[in-house]
Amino acid sequence: MWSVLVASAFLPLLPMLPLQLLVQDLLSDIGQTGISFDNFDLELVSKPLKWNPAEIGRFMLCFGPVSSLFDIVTFSVMWWVFDANSVARQALLQSGLFVVGLLTQTLVVHMARTPKLPFVQSRAAVPLTVMTLTIIAIGLWLPLGPLGSYFKLQPLPLVYYSWLVGILLS
């Protein structure tokens, strides 16, 4: 949200429409319903953990700017690589930002749930994994499907998905 707010102040177009932000947030929230079914790494539950509010502050100060950095990378790729830099092409920019934002919001749950390498050293429970994959599929499909135009999204160029994989892996 912070990145979209800042970008709105400097760009001659809207980086995302309010409806797109609401749909992105709703889908992200639905994807997180699987958290309640998750299992935990044994070393995290073998002894009680101390509540440390300072850690939450450090987490926010780390993840916030890192998230904004990836938003800036996405803005830049959409702006300069895909020429989504005019009002006439803002739907392309919005579609690219929508997909990256939704997928990063959905996948960050897997990073926050364990200090280990997600998906490799620590796997989430099946319900959380299913919800994650479902939301990812919806997020990738939405700009391509019949509802895309309703949300002012448009299909993304095939090469966009290689950029998407690079951003997500980073």
Q: What tags apply to this protein structure?
A:
7 helices; 170 residues
Question: Can you put this structure into words, describing what you see?
Answer:
By secondary structure, this protein is an all-alpha fold. The chain has one domain (16-169). Helix content is 62%, strand content 0%. The chain contains seven helices and no strands. The chain has helices spanning 2-10, 18-31, 42-45, 53-81, 90-112, 126-141, 160-169. Helix 5 (90-112) packs antiparallel against helix 6 (126-141) and helix 5 (90-112) packs parallel to helix 7. The longest helix has 29 residues, at 53-81. The radius of gyration is 17 Å and the shape is globular. 25% of the residues are buried.
